[in-house]
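hey m, so remember when u said the tokens were messed up on ur end? i reran from scratch. heres the input so u can diff it against urs
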Amino acid sequence: MKLHTKLTLGLVSSLFAVSLATAANSGAKMGPYHAGMDCNGMGIMSGDMKMDPVARAQQHLIELNAKLNLTADQQPAWKTFSERVNDQAKNMVAIRDQMEDNDQSLPKKTAPERMAKMADFMKDRAQNMARMADAVKTFYATLTAEQQATFDKIQMSQMGRKQ
């Protein structure tokens, strides 16, 4: 066996062992109700991420609409885009609810069953993100250069990044 293959296997084995040890540590549980952690099963949440996804989406759409100063000709594209954003927010609520349900059922499943379930969640999330990316691309194409710059700045700030 080649040296780089041995090193890769060793690294993967080590990471797997560490993840098993961490999962076995009863004091290291992470879940939506673990004291000291603000986690909903999908990752650490902060700021307005704790807000209901539908309410947060509505807030972002109101702010975006106000800053873009859309023309009458752009309104149909805005309507389609905002509907897609709202659909995405509703999908996020459904996924969050499924994740919370799985907090109860996943420990009873085998490791391969848990991994398959998580892979399914990730596939669904990726499909939703791809649809959202298409909606952004379509709407973005209707904007002027100035509106696009505004959209870029707002979108980056909503992702928690400064531009």
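this time it looks ok to me. The longest helix spans residues 75-105. if urs says something different then somethings off w ur setup not the seq
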